[in-house]
Write a structure and sequence with these properties.
This protein has 4 helices and 7 strands; from the N terminus they run ββαααβββββα. The protein is of the alpha+beta class.
Length: 150
């Protein structure tokens, strides 16, 4: 959240407000009537359209992440989550791709929610910085996704 030099809270950033508006639209869209299959197909189209809108480097990474996730864990359903491509199990987001552009960050992020079964001891990573999706990164992403839904 944004603040001023004197530490006073000014509210949400423009990017945070945009993400919340995206999420409100997503919830309204999900609530519309229609068959489960129609909603699932529309959700996939929405994810692919969102990926297509991204800048080159983020788009390339998001396309690879999408391919790896959908190939590795077909039980995960693509959907938009706060305007980001996400993958859900029984309607609950397990992982998501956040482009660097989304929040004006230095790098894109592959994130996992508390639904992901990545538990390892008393502390484990739940988000990973991505600067490029190499063959090595694809293998690691696949292993993380497989563990997340195990």
């Amino acid at each position: 959240m944004s603040g001023t030099e004197d530490g006073k809270h000014e509210g949400f950033t423009a990017e945070e407000r945009a993400a919340m508006k995206d999420h409100a639209k997503e919830l309204k869209k999900e609530a519309r009537r229609g068959s489960r299959a129609d909603k699932a197909a529309e959700a996939v189209r929405d994810v692919l359209a969102k990926i297509a809108e991204m800048q080159d480097s983020d788009r390339i990474m998001a396309e690879r992440v999408h391919a790896v996730v959908t190939e590795t864990a077909p039980v995960l359903a693509p959907k938009l989550w706060y305007g980001m491509p996400a993958y859900a199990l029984d309607g609950k987001v397990v992982c998501f791709f956040q482009s660097a552009e989304k929040f004006k960050a230095r790098y894109a992020t592959l994130g996992f929610s508390d639904q992901a079964k990545l538990d390892e001891g008393t502390m484990w990573p739940a988000a990973f910085a991505l600067t490029e999706v190499t063959a090595e990164a694809e293998v690691r992403i696949a292993a993380l996704v497989k563990q997340a839904v195990s």
